[in-house]
């Protein structure tokens, strides 16, 4: 009832507004107060970290007032809330983006200035929470930003990993992993909610019993329980009052042990129990590694999903809504299969704990969930060994069996006598060791299933979910990914943002499709000059940073040709590398060769257990070592491996790119999102018809996109008919020479064995058709060089790319999720007192 009390409402609104008073003096005063009251430091001895914390708390205070107001509104109006369930949220540094979204940047800059502090230096101190591997985790973060900015009630649910994705060092050209201690200085961006906690069961057994009403019930007698505690991160919308929450679960031991009656033995056992429980949310798993035996990973998935669903059920209770209305109050999106055990867990909670019938529970479950698939790569499709799951989650396996039985009955009714379909669609893979197919569980338990780019959604229906698409055609749809223009234009490319304001007015800031009008000015000489000036400055900044980190001097006039993303064979960084080697050979052979001076920049992490990817990093480093100091080429060719690519480094890299490398084997990259970040910032793309590249090319126009390579269909056909990499080698001398130079130890300080595994793989199997696409790629790169020579043409193409990037805003994507999947609507949060 407190939320209906007008005096309370007035008080809270006035707190919100007061802390908001757009006065630099108030802001400055608040920073100093936080410095003293939170850091216990006077200004004269405060460290930069103290100042950073004081500033961050000052910003946070302004968000918390909005957050409280948002939560109050959601509860009051019984609105439907979008819940994004994801094992990863790669949110990046928070201070800059919160300042931007609150519109406080100038105020903060001036306040810090008069306190003798440089805002940019403080922003640089922030350690980013690396709670994700790459695209999938970053997408989740962009979606939270858009949800808040579009004023849509939403909660992100995930795991508060103590150690996120490892930090990458490059030592002697090799990747070396360092543990990510993002919490070592504390983080000002989380609110701990000890009162919001749930218990999650593991192991044990189940038994049946009859309750007082004579109903047959199942009880899960767990072997142990873990407690999940909520850690909330506020998510501020852009220039609106909506502030949503990212709720991350940290695992804890259930009871701190009882001091009254323990003996020494029990004591240590109790401590051990505590250690084991706290291990659950300890570390993020790097992807691209075999899942086998990763018990802890399954435990993590179940842990956060169970906490999230229990939390949603609690919110129903708090707002006095009967559980039958669950699907009217929540839409839950499964970000890949990582949270897909949620389908069985919601069934368990509804049946075992809320006593709903199977039919009612199933109807709620299917209407609540929707599933996004992010990959077709067979090695990334999650399956869990049935015995493992049975020992860890016995009750959930029973429920999965029941779901499966009912589902397969349905299949048999639809396709009588077709046992092939039944075996293919079963939730259990019965070939060899039995496994639970998580993509099937997610598909069966959801009312909508989507891929992340048009091509990917089509392939999904034709390949891994083919039988399901045939049976439930209306369940499938596409939602092409998007990225947030707040972080990836306004925050990281302020020069471009100002130029866009000057050219178009400010409407593009809340409606990115307005960038379209820029195309009308693509040939305008004044705009082109200003455009180039912005780009020059961004490139100079990146060049300076590269100089500091790697010692490599990069002239900013060179074309910056950039490939940053996780290192993977399917993304084909080695195709890029082979082209560099052949270019290097041509330049050496013919010093007068007229090619555009280029700096090739790479960045990205390899999974610690993925040897081939690590070897690719070593190859790139080896090429850099040779090329950068060769007097014959050093003015025309530079190669850089930028270490530790993460969100923060992305801020400086994307705006400095002339050329964006999106060269995956067609059919393998589900969407890509880096491709969109580059495009928004005015880079041209060289790419295959893969993932969202297809749509990027459609938007930009074929003339403004460098296309090469086989199509997904051609790739599939070639692999069907028996691909022979040797065939392409025989036909291409440059390719032979490039591979030969690697084999001779030229890029490994004479070591002829180092790159053997990589060469053998390319020559004998080449699973991602690097050799087959090489010639076309090299020819396309030649066209890039020619286009670069014509400054005006290049500027025109660059402007058009930015102009046509509006479709790749995550705002567009989120609107599609809301309309086509979630059925959620915006709720305006008004801070003025009622
Ligand atoms: C990635 C895909 O590889 C990208 O093509 C896609 O753009 C993003 O997801 C977002 O949809 N992905 C990932 O980062 N991790 C996975 N386990 C699977 C897909």
Automatic annotation (TrEMBL):
<keyword id="KW-0328">Glycosyltransferase</keyword>
<comment type="function">
    <text>Allosteric enzyme that catalyzes the rate-limiting step in glycogen catabolism, the phosphorolytic cleavage of glycogen to produce glucose-1-phosphate, and plays a central role in maintaining cellular and organismal glucose homeostasis.</text>
</comment>
<dbReference type="Pfam" id="PF00343">
    <property type="entry name" value="Phosphorylase"/>
</dbReference>
<dbReference type="InterPro" id="IPR011833">
    <property type="entry name" value="Glycg_phsphrylas"/>
</dbReference>
<protein>
    <recommendedName>
        <fullName>Alpha-1,4 glucan phosphorylase</fullName>
        <ecNumber>2.4.1.1</ecNumber>
    </recommendedName>
</protein>
<comment type="similarity">
    <text>Belongs to the glycogen phosphorylase family.</text>
</comment>
<dbReference type="GO" id="GO:0004645">
    <property type="term" value="F:1,4-alpha-oligoglucan phosphorylase activity"/>
</dbReference>
<keyword id="KW-0119">Carbohydrate metabolism</keyword>
<keyword id="KW-0808">Transferase</keyword>
<keyword id="KW-0663">Pyridoxal phosphate</keyword>
<comment type="function">
    <text>Phosphorylase is an important allosteric enzyme in carbohydrate metabolism. Enzymes from different sources differ in their regulatory mechanisms and in their natural substrates. However, all known phosphorylases share catalytic and structural properties.</text>
</comment>
<dbReference type="InterPro" id="IPR035090">
    <property type="entry name" value="Pyridoxal_P_attach_site"/>
</dbReference>
<dbReference type="InterPro" id="IPR000811">
    <property type="entry name" value="Glyco_trans_35"/>
</dbReference>
């Amino acid at each position: 009832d407190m939320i209906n009390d007008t005096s309370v409402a007035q008080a809270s609104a006035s707190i919100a507004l007061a802390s908001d008073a757009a006065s630099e003096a108030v802001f400055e005063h608040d920073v100093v107060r936080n410095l003293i009251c939170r850091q216990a430091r006077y200004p004269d001895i405060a460290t930069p970290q103290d100042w950073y914390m004081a500033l961050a708390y000052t910003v946070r205070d302004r968000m918390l007032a909005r957050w409280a107001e948002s939560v109050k509104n959601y509860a009051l109006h019984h609105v439907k809330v979008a819940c994004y369930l994801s094992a990863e949220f790669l949110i990046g540094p928070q201070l800059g983006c919160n300042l931007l979204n609150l519109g406080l940047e100038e105020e903060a800059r001036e306040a810090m200035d008069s306190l003798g502090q440089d805002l940019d230096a403080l922003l640089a101190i922030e350690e980013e929470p690396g709670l994700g591997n790459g695209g999938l985790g970053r997408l989740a973060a962009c979606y939270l930003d858009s949800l808040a900015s579009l004023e849509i009630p939403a909660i992100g649910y995930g795991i508060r990993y103590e150690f996120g994705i490892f930090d990458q060092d490059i030592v002697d050209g090799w990747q070396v992993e360092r543990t990510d201690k993002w919490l070592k200085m504390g983080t000002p961006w989380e609110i701990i909610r000890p009162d919001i906690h749930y218990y999650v069961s593991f192991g044990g057994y189940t038994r049946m019993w009859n309750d007082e009403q004579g109903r047959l019930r199942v009880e899960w007698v767990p072997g142990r329980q873990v407690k999940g505690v909520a850690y909330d991160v506020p998510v501020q919308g852009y220039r609106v009052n909506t502030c949503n929450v990212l709720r991350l679960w940290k695992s804890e031991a259930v009871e701190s042990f009882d001091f009254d009656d323990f003996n020494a033995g029990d004591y240590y056992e109790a401590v051990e129990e505590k250690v084991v429980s706290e291990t659950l949310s300890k570390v993020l798993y790097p992807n691209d590694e075999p899942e086998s035996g990763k018990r802890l990973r399954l435990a993590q998935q179940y842990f956060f999903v169970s906490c999230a669903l229990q939390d949603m059920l609690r919110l129903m209770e708090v707002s006095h809504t009967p559980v039958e209305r669950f699907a009217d109050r929540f839409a839950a999106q499964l970000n890949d299969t990582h949270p897909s055990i949620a389908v069985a867990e919601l069934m368990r909670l509804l049946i075992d704990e809320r006593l709903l019938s199977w039919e009612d529970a199933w109807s709620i479950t299917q209407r609540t969930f929707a599933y996004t698939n992010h990959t077709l790569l067979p090695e990334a499709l999650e399956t869990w060994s049935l015995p493992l799951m049975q020992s860890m989650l016995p009750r959930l396996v029973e429920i999965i069996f029941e779901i499966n039985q009912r589902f397969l009955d349905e299949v048999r009714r639809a396709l009588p006598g077709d046992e092939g379909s039944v075996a293919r669609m079963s939730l259990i893979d019965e070939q060899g060791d039995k496994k639970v197919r998580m993509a099937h569980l997610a598909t069966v338990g959801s009312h909508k299933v989507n891929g992340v780019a048009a091509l990917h959604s089509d392939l999904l229906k034709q390949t891994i979910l083919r039988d399901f698409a045939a049976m439930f055609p209306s369940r499938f749809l596409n939602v092409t990914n998007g990225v947030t223009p707040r972080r990836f234009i306004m925050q990281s490319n302020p020069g471009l943002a100002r130029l866009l304001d000057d050219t178009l007015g400010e409407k593009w800031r809340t409606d990115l499709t307005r960038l379209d009008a820029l195309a009308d000015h693509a040939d305008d000489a004044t705009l082109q000059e200003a455009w180039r000036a912005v780009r020059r400055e961004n490139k100079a900044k990146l060049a300076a940073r590269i100089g500091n980190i790697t010692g490599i001097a990069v002239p900013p006039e060179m074309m910056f040709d950039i490939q940053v993303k996780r290192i993977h064979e399917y993304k084909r960084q080695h195709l890029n590398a082979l082209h560099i080697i052949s270019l290097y050979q041509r330049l050496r052979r013919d010093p007068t060769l007229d090619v555009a001076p280029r700096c090739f920049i790479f960045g990205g992490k390899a999974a610690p257990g993925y040897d081939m990817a690590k070897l690719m990093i070593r190859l790139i480093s080896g090429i850099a070592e040779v090329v950068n100091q060769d007097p014959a080429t050093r003015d025309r060719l530079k190669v850089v491996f930028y270490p530790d690519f993460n969100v923060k480094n992305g801020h400086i890299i994307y705006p400095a790119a002339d050329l964006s490398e999106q060269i995956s084997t067609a059919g393998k990259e589900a969407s890509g999102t880096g491709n969109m970040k580059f495009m928004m910032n005015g880079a041209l793309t060289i790419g295959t018809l893969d993932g969202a590249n297809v749509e990027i090319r459609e938007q930009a126009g074929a003339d403004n996109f460098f296309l090469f390579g086989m199509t997904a269909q051609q790739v599939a056909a070639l692999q069907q008919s028996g691909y022979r990499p040797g065939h392409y080698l025989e036909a291409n001398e440059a390719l032979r020479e490039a591979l030969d130079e690697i084999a001779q130890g030229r890029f490994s300080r004479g070591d002829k064995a180092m790159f053997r595994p990589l060469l053998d793989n390319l020559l004998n199997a080449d699973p991602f058709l690097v050799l087959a696409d090489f010639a076309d790629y090299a020819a396309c790169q030649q066209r890039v060089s020619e286009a670069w020579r014509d400054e005006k043409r290049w500027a025109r193409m660059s402007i058009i790319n930015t102009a046509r990037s509006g479709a790749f805003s995550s705002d567009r994507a989120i609107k599609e999720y809301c309309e086509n999947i979630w059925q959620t609507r915006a709720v305006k949060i008004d801070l003025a007192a009622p």
